[in-house]
Amino acid sequence: MEMGLKRDLRRAADTICEADRVTIVSHIDADGISTESILAQALSREGIPVSSVFVRQLEPMAMRHIPKDDSLKLFTDLGAGQQNLLEEHGLSADEVLILDHHVSQPCGTAYPQVNCLDYGVTRMSAAGVAYLVAKTIDPTSTDLAKLAVVGNVGDMMARENCGLVGPAREIVQDGVEYGNIIVRERDLNCYGISTRPVHVCLGYCDDPYIDGISNSTNAALQFLERLGVELKNPQGGWLVWEELTFDDRRKIVSALAQQLIAHGREIDRLLGETYIFPDETERTPLRNASEYATLLNACGRWAKPKVGGSICRGERGDAYREAEYMLAHHRSVIRDLLQYILDTGVTELSHLQYIHTGDRFPDTIVGIGAGMALSKLDWRKPIMVLAAMVDEPEVTKVSMRTNQWALARGVDLQEALVEASAGVGGAGGGHRIAAGAFIPRNTEEEFVDSVNRILKRQSAPAGQDDS
Ligand SMILES: [Mn+2]
């Protein structure tokens, strides 16, 4: 590991261990929830009193949830980009510690921070940083690596390379050695390997897009039946991918590869690493990292991050049942949103496509819908979804998504939204591939045009005048 990162981790561990009590302020997504759980458990084991606050994002309205007391405020999966807000809130450098993986925006106060981006680690999330801090506090806490893998996968850190890489991959190894993670290398790169019948799993798979299979569970079933693999258990129930024999999995994968090649598509995204948790019940969403992350995201989306936190701490009773219910609800609302976007259609500009969903869907889920819709629309153009916020009628929430293809051509949504929102008196942030903003409602048109102009500038070849 990079020496500077190691030094920052040691410093963070010392700061935490010297604290009389700690308040964790974390984000409500899978990464933020698993991060909070890793740290809360690590601190409890050291006998340090800890309480937690979850926020949708660190913005002025959210600051009132942060207690004015003498506890160490541990900002996790957020904070790096909002240091001026901490300063405005009157927090001093010695009562704050930031553990984050988002782009840092320093301010007058030098807040201590561990940020993997500072060391060129772009494929690790806050849960990875939190785990490394926990392991620095107590090297035997490798049982928590599993939650770090959930957070990393939940934050799409395994997407680009079809598996975790760098320090995030080293964390996987800790879990393998502890015994609560099994790595399947070159496994099917498809969501739902532990809970969905195989044809459903394949029918919903769109990365890679498999002609004649993606978007049709019926066609997927016929495809599988032709291969003569065993799809049902002796009781007549559908097997899930994880339960298929090695030979049947291999037979299906090679047939899928042939199908991709026959349609002139790349096969490089067909296989990926999957992370299975042998200590969890089979055929549940807790059984692998990506489904576990989705379960936690569902808790966050319905504003119940602490339910997710209980699950991360091992609760398998009421909290688990409640999360399962939210997961089912979550999927159906996202399906409705996706269908709404496809039915209504987007407005196309030269360098982006957008749609306004009004107040039909919770603003917290429009980003997910945007990402899903992109693969079914013109995937070359980034998609923007604008949504009204029920509790703040003067504000519009903006979510944007793009893909690796556009990133390779210079697109940077984070930059575009930060710049365009600043121009209309709003605020934006995120990542190159997925970003969001809050803007005054009466600036929507101007904002959309401005983002389009910035995207045009970004995709122009260097040196060429794009005027
Ligand atoms: Mn994160």
Automatic annotation (TrEMBL):
Pfam families: DHH, DHH_CID, DHHA1. Residues 366-456 form the DHHA1 domain. The keyword DNA damage does not apply. Its EC number is 3.1.-.-. One of its GO terms (molecular function) is exonuclease activity. Residues 21-151 form the DDH domain. Residues 191-267 form the DHH-CID domain. The keyword Ligase does not apply. It is an enzyme of class 3 (hydrolase). Keywords: Hydrolase. InterPro entries: DDH_dom, DHH_CID, DHH_sf, DHHA1_dom, SSDNA_exonuclease_RecJ. This is Archaea-specific RecJ-like exonuclease. The gene is recJ3.
